[in-house]
Amino acid sequence: MIYADTDFFIALVKDDDWLQERAVSVAREYEGEIYTSRATLLELLVISDRFAFDRLEALSLSLQIASIQEDEDVLFQAADYMEQDGLTAFDAYHLAYADDDPVVSSDNAFDEVTDDRIELEKDDRSQDEGI
Description:
Blueprint: E1 2-4, H1 6-13, H2 20-29, E2 34-36, H3 38-51, H4 55-65, E3 67-68, H5 73-85, H6 89-98, E4 103-105, E5 117-119
Parallel strand pairs: 1-2, 1-4, 2-3, 4-5
Helix pairs in contact: 1-2, 1-4, 3-4, 5-6
């Protein structure tokens, strides 16, 4: 399983995102193995006006691609990542939620805490466009 953070879904739903091709490739490669959190979907809603995408469509697409699992201990781990590693609240929550699974993201802040990030910014032009 891999955990998808917010920028993965932004890349999929934003019309002109430079990471879209790679995000589509990852979505295909890991179909049925991607999960996310309620915090990710909430963050997607928070930024929907700034990036001008249809929030209902974005949520529907996200839930087709990823499952959601919840564990309250994640909040305590996130607080620890904030305190110990200086991550923002959302980044800390994403990393804590992923536990030991890889995180698909373009945010290199994760690289200081884990070696297990699937980079969205990796240039992979061999995949077809679209999901």
